[in-house]
Design goal:
Blueprint lengths: L8 H7 L9 E5 L4 H11 L6 E3 L1 H6 L2 H13 L4 E3 L1 H9 L3 H10 L4 E4 L10 H10 L3 E6 L9 H17 L3 E5 L16 H15 L4 E4 L3 H11 L5 E5 L3 H8 L16 H9 L2
Helix pairs in contact: 2-4, 5-6, 7-8
Length: 277
């Protein structure tokens, strides 16, 4: 097949069999200046399911700059999320209503909730109701209460907790999936890959890939999740500078994709079809 006239990357990707898919990755702004973030949005906003703003930077960076970032994301139709740590701090300090007021005033789209730092049970319905009253969406991070290996009973309790938040109105569930060796992440099990995959499979079986988001900051865990679940898996907290490499891997646009049966791109079928024309 010969393309005549102007040729665009979208035409070529379609020709070689790269599937079109919605944005499935939510990168993390870990403290970039506003101009740099705007450049990333200009380059890759079409690949962003949402943009998460660093929790610490939210509190200490220039508020003017942070508001500029949020406005920039909005101009590209990219939702913005504030992570779970400031939520946990606000809860521990009995300042949750003020914190929610701040998030709403800064025009965030969504807050991430978790039990971090609070040391107390959360009333899912109450939190979601307070957030929605301020025009904020909610997602909930499913997390281990204690370091160490997760037992079957503890996993079932976490699943039940996730269902409570979804029933209360939370839109999505987040699970930490980075290989950081700290023992607190739900899927960080000291390299025990089979056990880790079994937990991830159990969560996806219960909630589905459209509800589950895997929070992962390392290429090893990002590529591992894409290999395990396929290109439809949803990832968050990917570094902005890694977004394109993750999406390249997601779409099979790497040399190893030519020989990989797991590649989301049907390379051989596309090549055969193109040569026959």
């Amino acid at each position: 097949m010969r393309l005549t006239g102007n040729v665009h990357t979208t035409d070529y990707l379609r020709l070689i069999g790269v599937r079109e898919m919605p944005p499935l990755t939510s990168p993390l702004d870990s403290g970039y200046d506003a101009t740099t973030l705007e450049s990333h949005l200009d380059q890759s906003s079409h690949l962003m399911a949402a943009l998460k703003i660093s929790t610490a930077c939210l509190m200490l960076a220039s508020e003017t700059a942070t508001r500029r970032k949020i406005a920039a994301a909005k101009s590209y139709n990219v939702p913005t999320i504030v992570g779970s740590e400031p939520f946990g701090i606000a809860l521990a300090q009995n300042r949750l209503p003020v914190y929610l007021d701040l998030c709403a005033d800064m025009r965030f789209t969504r807050i991430e909730c978790a039990r971090v730092l609070s040391g107390r049970p959360l009333n899912a319905s109450e939190v979601v109701k307070m957030a929605e009253a301020r025009g904020l969406e909610v997602e909930f991070e499913v997390e281990k209460k204690d370091p160490g290996i997760l037992t079957s009973d503890a996993l079932e309790q976490l699943i039940a907790e996730g269902k409570q938040w979804l029933d209360a109105g939370a839109l999505e569930l987040v699970v930490e999936a980075s290989d950081r060796g700290k023992g607190c992440d739900l899927l960080d099990l000291g390299g025990e890959r089979n056990f880790r995959d079994a937990i991830a499979d159990r969560l996806v079986k219960e909630f589905g890939l459209t509800v589950m988001i895997f929070k992962t900051a390392t290429n090893v865990s990002q590529y591992g999740l894409l290999d395990h679940f396929g290109p439809q898996v949803r990832l968050s907290d990917v570094r902005l500078e890694d977004l394109l490499s993750v999406e390249i891997y997601r779409r099979g646009l790497r040399c190893e994709g030519l020989a990989s049966e797991k590649s989301p791109t049907n390379w051989h079928a596309a090549a055969t079809e193109s040569m026959s024309r």
